[in-house]
Structures are given as C-alpha cells and as structure tokens.
Amino acid sequence: MYLVEAVSVLVRRWSFTQRHLSYYLLLADVRLRRSVLGSSLTLNDFDLVICAHPNDAALLTVDTSTPTFYDCPNPWTDELRDEGRLTDRQASKLRRFESELYERVDHLSFSWVSYARHVLASDGYDVSGRNITQLNWGCDPAPQRAEFRDPPRVIYLGSLSSKFIDIELLGRLSKSYPHIDVYGGPPPDPSLGLNYLGWAPPTVLQQYQFGLITCTKDEMRRNGFSAKHLDYIAYGLPVLVPAWRRHLDLLRGSLPYEEETFTSVIAALGSEDAWRQASDEAYEQALELTWDNTLRPLGELLD
Description:
CATH topology of the largest domain: Rossmann fold
Radius of gyration: 21 Å
Structural class: alpha/beta
CATH superfamily of the largest domain: Glycogen Phosphorylase B
Strand content: 5-15%
Number of strands: 8
Strand order of the largest sheet: 5-4-6-7-8
Helix content: 40-55%
Low-confidence stretches: none
Largest sheet: 5 strands, parallel
CATH architecture of the largest domain: 3-Layer(aba) Sandwich
Number of domains: 2
Shape: globular
C-alpha cells in the first residue's frame, strides 16, 4: 500500500499521467485494502459494519452475515473524474463498480440527501435506491450565537486545497468586499490577495455576520453540499452560497449570490432587523439538524 501511494504521488505530478494512470492505482489500492481489512477483521462478530471512506468501501463486499452500512461522503467516480484523474472510459468502468457496491450493501447513505438525488438521477449510475437510509450531516448549535455588526464581516472557514472550492472565486470576492477573513489550510497563494488568518476553532464564528461558501460549477458540485454550511448556521450565520448550487431549499438561511451580485446580497441585510431575520432562519435550521436528529435513523436501525 505504501508503494502504491508513492507511485500515485509521482503520477499526480503530470496531468497526462494523472488522467490515464490513476485508475489502475486506485483499483490496486481498493483491492489491497479489501484484502487487508477482510483478513484482519472478524466481521461476523459485530452487529453492524459501517464504512465511511470510498477507498475502504470494498470491504463491504466481503461475505458476512453482519448487516453492512456504507456512509458514502459523495459519488466517488464523479469526484475523481472532475479532478482530472480518470478518462471518460475509466469513469464509466468505475461507476459500474461503484453502482454494484451501492446495490450490494444493506444500507446506503450520503453526507447530504442531494448527493443521493444526484446518483439516482444520473445516467452514469445504475442504482435503485431501495436500500438508502439517509443520514444527513449534523451540527451542534452554539449556545452563544453571532451578533449583528456594521460593517458586516464575512468568514470563510475550511479547506483551501480542493479544486472544488474555487479558490480563485474566493480571491475575486475578497477584492470586491474587503471584510472577508479566511481560515483553514493549507496557506493559499499570496497572489490571491486573501486575508488569510491561519487556523481557528469554530468559536471564531461568533465574531462574524455571514458564512461564505464557494464551489465550482461542475454537475456534482451543483448538486452537492459543504459541511461548513452546518458550522455556519450552528452560530446563526446566514450563509452566502453560489446561486448555481441546487437544493438550497433544504437549508434555510441560505443566501444565493452570483459573483456580480455578491456585495448587493450582503447590502440587502445591512440593517440589524433584516440580518436578524435571516440569522433566526439559519439558527432554527441548525436546531432541526442536530446530530441527535440526523443520526436517529442509525439508532433506529441498531435498535
């Protein structure tokens, strides 16, 4: 497995090798993990086997009398394809493998219900949905919420490494609205002009008035979900989300923006009364999405 990872690092240095060779290394990694985990774990001794990582998910195809639960973060093949790590032909083959895995497990969930909708509506996946036991991402609502301030401050809190966050868009928004602070890692390119403040605990959200999400426009991310969305609303922050992201009706307190309308969306909530109404909607949504609520189907399953 270390050898496969070392070769993968070399392959990712060049776009051509990454696109054409990653598939074979992914398969090698998945098969090795299935072999190692399958031989070292006595699966029949447990009441439920849960996997929450795509690279390990082939373990759930090992013969066992124990019920299996795949808590899939997001559709893996589509993510790898959009990262430029698969050719179209390889993506088609990996989707067949992934579809068979989805169908074979006893219970299937995704980090957010919109990913399940994406898979069921996609022509590339052949999935019935009969075994979906959805566990949405949850949160712990903060006992002390954020308060209104003028001018409103915006926070971006999260990863800065994935191409899907569209860090270039984050840079352009920072130029159009100067009160955006960025936390996370790894440190971004200084040329982006971000007000990067390093790492901070979630309690820093109390100091801000809006949470910010940026994402690319590929089909999966349009139907996708950001875990930091729940971090924001847990502190009562209205969340600025690209207008091209779908299913925003599932998360009250979301404020869709286009790059050209970003500052006007913030200005529309420039009074304390207007901001407070949006903040209340966000926090009420957080109260409905506590971990106790989102994980209730898992508790019922175990009972």
